[in-house]
Design brief:
Oligomer: single chain
Structural class: alpha/beta
Distance between the termini: 74 Å
CATH superfamily of the largest domain: Thiamin diphosphate (ThDP)-binding fold, Pyr/PP domains
Radius of gyration: 24 Å
CATH topology of the largest domain: Rossmann fold
Length: about 550
């Protein structure tokens, strides 16, 4: 068979369900092979969006998402999505085309060295030089992509190689067991936890990549040790739990950092320094940190754990739970006091009738309307801090945000992928006006796929997060404002329904109606970001940690 057919057979062998992307003339043999396969091709309106969709598919399923582009400009449009997947720990395969490599057909037209471009952005990148190498290269790409820590991989299939006849057989798909942590390290961790007076658990992004929720619930229920999480660790444990202190949406100075600074031991489960730090370590401080993760810590000047427990997180936590004993000298009274402070400040102004809507009210209303298993896919902007800080997640992978690359433009494509993976669940894209416009063309994709999807556009006619930081640094307001289209008409132009919120009390009912209606709905809600400076700059810096 043709090498292109063998490539698609290899993808089917790996269990691939979808390919997201935009084919070009160099992919036509591959496109014909897809036509005869069980794989569904989902055409997008931009390659970057295709990459975000493939990465989100990988994030939600743990299986490698696949995206396709032609050579040159199609391949370069994958760059941001490659970094998004690689930093975010999302398994993704990018397939790009290339001109014939055995003979020149158009000189150097559109040709760049895509493999070298992808090298610093991926775990593995390779040009296929022989059709008979396809089965082994595809198997290796998937294995590497899904191995901890997951990430992006890339294969380039030149046009003439795709036409070759090949006879190489497919490889059996195997899933190697994760290595188990050293029993000595587990015992040392138990000793440190039992000896501590104020231990505290931190849950990072790694906790959302594998099924560790039941193991961690078992551990917390046995020990009653309070916990908090990073932004990408939200939902691993139900955040309505009385032992949940909050999310470290900022790196320092928030109310939750009063508890973090009082802890004499932090049991850090699944976090690494790729995600924005939830707290800073300092040399010569008495507080210790245990790093429990699939891979060793990346030592940084703000993160240098004193003990590392490396291996399958779930197994390590189960073993620790079986061996650990609850200690009478553990004292969580201060943490309980701080929890009351955190809850009080998060709930402040959650019922405010102000219009434009305040962020606290916006987050409260979204949480009130969205079902427990509903999925909110956030773009990147000022609202991300408010949702990370104020939005309790009940289940794993229900609040999709990016705190690694923190790229704008991913919210809508991620929501589309989430709805494809979970068609029976409510899915909400939450975008700022700036991030939405970066991939707004994917409204057509959502409409064409007949998805039931709601897109929330939070509108301040500016790059709001940068304005907040500009003000905090004492600079004049400059260079960050713009004009937006009429989003209601914009939605209708794509065949979606548009809704403009003109009163705060209308927001929750409109959102609920849209979530329970067929089709794609776009809701524009004006926001008042004056609370950014009041709460996230002045209030938290003026706070005094209770003694």
């Amino acid at each position: 068979m043709k090498a292109a057919e063998q490539f698609i057979r290899a993808l089917e062998n790996e269990g691939v369900e979808y390919i997201f992307g935009i084919p070009g003339e160099e992919n036509l043999d591959l496109l014909e092979a897809i036509r005869h396969s069980k794989i569904k091709l989902i055409i997008t309106r931009h390659e970057q969006a295709a990459g975000f969709m493939a990465a989100t598919y990988g994030r939600l399923t743990g299986k490698t998402g696949v995206c396709l582009s032609t050579l040159g400009p199609g391949a370069t449009n994958f760059v941001t999505a490659a970094a998004y997947a690689n930093l975010g720990g999302m398994p993704m395969l990018m397939i790009t085309g290339q001109k014939p490599i055995l003979k020149s057909k158009q000189a150097r037209f559109q040709i760049i060295n895509t493999v070298e471009m992808m090298r610093p952005l991926t775990k593995f990148t390779c040009q296929i030089l022989n059709g008979n190498l396809i089965p082994s290269l595809v198997r290796e790409a998937f294995r590497i992509s899904q191995a901890e820590r997951p990430g992006a991989v890339h294969l380039e299939l030149p046009e003439d190689i795709a036409e070759e006849n090949c006879t190489a057989p497919l490889y059996e798909v195997t899933e190697p067991a994760l290595p188990q942590a050293d029993p000595i390290a587990i015992e040392q961790a138990i000793n440190l936890i039992q000896a501590a007076k104020h231990p505290l658990i931190l849950i990072g992004a790694g906790g959302n990549r594998r099924a560790i929720s039941s193991a961690l619930r078992y551990f917390v229920d046995k020990t009653d040790i309070p916990f908090f999480n990073t932004q990408m660790g939200k939902g691993v444990l139900d955040e309505h739990d009385k032992r949940f202190l909050g999310t470290a949406a900022l790196s320092d100075h928030d109310y939750i950092h009063c508890a973090i600074n009082r802890a004499d031991l932090i049991v850090n489960i699944g976090h690494d320094t790729i995600e924005k730090p939830p707290f800073f370590m300092h040399l010569h401080e008495k507080r210790k940190v245990i790093h429990i993760n699939f891979s060793p810590a990346n030592i940084d000047e703000v993160y240098f754990p004193q003990l590392e427990v490396i291996g399958d997180i779930s197994h390590a936590v189960y073993r620790m739970t079986e061996m650990i004993e609850k200690q009478a000298h553990w004292d969580f009274s201060y943490f309980e006091t701080i929890k009351k402070e955190v809850d009080a400040h998060i709930n402040e102004k959650a019922d405010a009738p102000n219009f434009p809507i305040l962020p606290q009210r916006l987050v409260r209303d979204v949480r009130k309307v969205l079902p427990k298993d509903g999925i909110a896919a956030l773009d990147n902007g000022m609202y991300k801090i408010w949702f990370a800080r104020n939005f309790p997640a009940f289940n794993t992978k229900t609040l999709l945000l990016d705190n690694a690359l923190a790229s704008m433009g991913a919210g809508l494509p991620s929501a589309i992928a989430a709805k494809i993976v979970h068609p029976d669940r409510k899915v909400l894209a939450i975008c700022g006006d700036g991030g939405f416009m970066m991939n707004s063309q994917e409204l057509e994709t959502a409409v064409r796929l007949n998805l039931d999807l709601v897109v929330l556009i939070i509108n301040d006619n500016a790059f709001g997060m940068i304005k907040w930081k500009q003000e905090a640094m004492g600079f004049k307001d400059f260079g960050l404002d713009y004009h937006n289209p009429d989003f209601v008409l914009y939605a209708k132009a794509y065949g979606a329904e548009g809704h403009l919120i003109s009163a705060t009390e209308d927001f929750a009912p409109t959102l609920e109606k849209c979530l329970n209606s067929k089709g794609v709905h776009v809701i524009e809600v004006p926001i008042d970001y004056s609370e950014n400076a009041r709460v996230l700059t002045h209030e938290i810096l003026a706070k005094t940690c209770l003694l």
